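Page 47, continued from p. 46.
Same chain as before, 228 aa.
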Amino acid sequence: MPAWEVLNREQHADLRASRRIDGARHFAQIVADEFPLAAPHYPILFTKNAETGAFYAGVVMGVEPGRNLLTVDGALPDYRPADLERQGFFVAEGQVVIDPDHVAFADPAGQPLFGPDGEAEPALKRVQQALRTLEQGIPATDAIIRRWLTHRLLEPIDVTLHSDDGQHVRLDGLYTVSLDALHALPDDVAVTLFRSGDLQLAYAQAGSIRHLRTLGRIRNERLLDGGL
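Result:
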């Protein structure tokens, strides 16, 4: 267990947090409010919690564990999901706590959390917003997924990437919204989903899977260049 510390301006006045730590993250959980922000850049897919079996949503940034294909010098150039933004930070008993040994705090060139006056700097404000996004968004997203499951809108997706060198990479345990099932919904159900915002989110997710081709292209290019 990490030795968590309650974040405070006295003890952590000089603490810095780096955003260039995403290179080893190939998957990150996101919540429904992030779908419109993430969909232009990443494939959004669903998987199951290994312990509970419950579905949750996430963005795929690589096709192999421990390797993010989209980072530049360790940082994502586009939208950074809240789950990545808050790395090293947690909420415990209503307080923001940190794991002081987390890699996020190991870079002396990271961004300061507190200014000279002790006020929160932009880096900390982003973390605070990320923590709020997850705290409020996870229950709301769970409810949306349950509604989709009620209407049998999730289905397994076969993700197999083929490389020019003959290698094949298969991603298992992933799910997507079924457009066939969506289009077969009764009109009254479709209207209800539209008014709740669920329908728009479903289309955003389904449309985002086109980015899997981008991941496959990047991986293939790096294999040919000897970068993997």
